Known about the structure:
Elements: E1 2-5, H1 17-26, E2 34-38, E3 41-42, H2 45-48, E4 53-54, E5 57-58, H3 66-84, E6 88-91, E7 105-110, H4 114-118, H5 124-136, E8 139-142, H6 145-155, E9 162-164, E10 185-189, H7 198-206, H8 209-214, E11 216-220, H9 227-235, E12 243-246, H10 250-259, E13 262-265, H11 274-281, E14 286-289, H12 294-298, E15 303-305, H13 310-321, H14 324-337, H15 343-356
Parallel strand pairs: 1-2, 1-6, 2-4, 3-5, 6-7, 7-8, 8-9, 10-11, 10-13, 11-12, 13-14, 14-15
Amino acid sequence: MRVFFDYSIFTLQSFGGVSKYTVNLVENFSDQVQPKIISLFYKNYYLKNCRFADKIIFFKKAGPFIKYLNKINKMYFNYKLRSKNPDIIHLSYFNQKNFYKSKAKIVITEHDLIKEKFYPKKFKDEIEYKKRLFEKIDKIICVSENTKKDLVEEYNIDVSKISVVYHGVNKNKNIRERSLNIRPFILFVGSRQRYKNFDSAIKSYARSSKLKLDFDFVCFGGGNFLKIEEELFKNLSINRDRIHYYEGDEQDLNYFYQNARLFIFPSLYEGFGMPLLEAMNMQCPIICSNTSCFPEIVKDSAVLFNPTDIEMLTFKIEKLIYDDQSLLDLKKKGNSNLNNYSWSKCANETEKLYKKLFI
């Protein structure tokens, strides 16, 4: 079975959950699937070493020239469709408004509905395109039951067209050692934009004189602190020496997961929440929101909180962070829960869905 993945996400993301998902998926199919990611021009680091990619030129920045590179990508993708006649086209993302002329079955993975829920006006055109695209799609894969529920409610799609396949996790525990001159710390990972609810996390930390005395607060990734964030720290009377920003690759991130006292994930909404599995993999205790898909993913392996109740969040962090036995129990439960998620399982279930399209 020949499956082509298009270039869309690989000219949009250098790193990121969607591109990581796609590369791990193609690398874990059985011999019955012949996958190929077709992206002549690409900026994605995961794709660099992927043995199932038809690629030529890696670029870090393209600026306004990206639209011309994608025109070439599209032309080449269409050429491959005509010359190789794949059985399935698995679209990697929605950012390129492409309707391909092919007899192949069309599949897409819906990772989340963040744009629909938080930025509907900004992405109005893309949302309208998705409506038209979903009418032509043969199968939609959702990464959680919660995402499936949201998709049905937002687009009124027949549930028979949708299947849920969970993400996997790279169980690589390699770390890059660092020498940090900081105290024990609470860890926050990734983007801090609106729906990520970073403000609630830092406000809950600032409310506690005990936490500020005994623990630092570390942010990994998501870009350095903005001026508005620096002003927030000042208004909350947080000693600026206690808040830190670091960035790096997966080995760097693993180091911070491994050494954090706990990982806080206050997001209001995610399609899946891959950092939760990454933290479990490094035996990092988790405290996360009780909304969206999070209870579905973590089950009993994290302490849950209402992300809008800052006072209760402070209480729960204080209760957990000083309790060695509770932290140890969460590590054990996280390790056990991790057995439910693997890339081989994700690929195997996806492969079964492909085959059902031809029955």
